[in-house]
Every structure is written in C-alpha cells, then in structure tokens.
Amino acid sequence: MGVTVLPAADRVAVAWRNGGGVTREIAAFPAGVDDFRWRLSIADVAADGPFSAFVGYRRVITVLTGAGMRLTVGDAVHDIGPLQPFEFDGGAQTTCTLPGGPITDLNLMVRAGARGAVRIIETSDPLTVTGPAAIVIVRGAATLAGRSVGVPDAALVDRATDTALSPLGTATVALIDLP
C-alpha cells in the first residue's frame, strides 16, 4: 500500500486504435490488457478526426494544453475548453475538431457503471489525497511522497492510503477518483 510516482519521461507513445494519433498511458488496471477496468493516459491531438470507439466504457476527457476542442458525440456538439473535464460514452460515434490548433488531453476511461471522475484544482496549499486515486501535475510543481514532481508527472495512490501533495508555489493538478 502506498504511493507510486509515475514520471512522464517513462511513458511510451502508442498509436491510437484507429491510427489517427498517439497516446501515452499513465496507468491501467489491470495493466497490459485490452479489457481493462480503468485506464488513464495523455494524448497528443494534432488534427481533426474520429475518436476510437471504446464500447462499454465511459470517458472523461480534459484538455491540458492548447485552446480546446469541439467534440461531436452522436448528434450533440460540445465545445470543451482547457481544464474542463467532459464525460461521454466511449462507444458513441465521436469526432473532434480543433478550432484553435493542436492540443494535449488527459483521458480517463472506466467501465460503464464504475465510478471515476476528474477534478482540476489550482492551489498553493497542501492537499491530502485519499486513494484509490491518481494525480497528474498540470501546471507548476510539487512534492509528493518525498519526490519532486512537475508537468505532466503523475502518481497512483492505493486504496485506503492518504498522501500529501505540497505545491511549490502555485500548482494545478488533476485529481482522478479511480474505481
């Protein structure tokens, strides 16, 4: 039980299911399988196009860098601004346009019916995070589990574990509640 720091430098770029871009997986459970319970990743979105379908999953996407995106999910159009978590059905036909150019996004996928949420917090005060959770540094830097972390380092906090995140100045973090 504890906290596992996941440095951004350790992530490997992997092609999307539809071949339209790349993602860097932060963590998944169970790891290394297509039928995961949850997965957390950061994707580079450089051009307009369709999203890969993940039938049976709920997705929460958050623009980390860039001006935002326009998602068409089924027949509904949604303008997603920076640092605004947006939840949708992973199996729905989804296309993306980038009115302001390329972006990077944080993508949480959980099996339909499972809990899982993303909250964006900007703070200069220490935070206590209780697992099961993940943390992604979005802006600034902090100390976590005795280590310095910066953009876009991450950490997993095990179930029934509390950890302190101490911003160095002001930091913006994504706090992810995991199933």
The CATH C-level name of the largest domain is Mainly Beta
Distance between the termini: 16 Å
The count of helical stretches stands at 0
Q: In which order are the strands of the major sheet placed?
A: 2-3-4-11-6-9
What average pLDDT do the residues reach? 94
Radius of gyration: 16 Å
Q: Quickly count the domains.
A: 2
The CATH fourth-level homologous superfamily of the largest domain: Jelly Rolls
What amount of the residues lies in strands? over 45%
Protein name: HutD protein
InterPro entries: RmlC-like_jellyroll, RmlC_Cupin_sf, Uncharacterised_HutD/Ves
3D structure, described in words:
- This is HutD protein.
- It holds the Pfam family HutD.
- InterPro entries: RmlC-like_jellyroll (IPR014710), RmlC_Cupin_sf (IPR011051), Uncharacterised_HutD/Ves (IPR010282).
- The chain folds into 2 domains: 101 residues, Jelly Rolls; 61 residues, Sandwich (Jelly Rolls), CATH 2.60.120.1030.
- It has no helices and 19 strands.
- The model has no long low-confidence stretch (mean pLDDT 94).
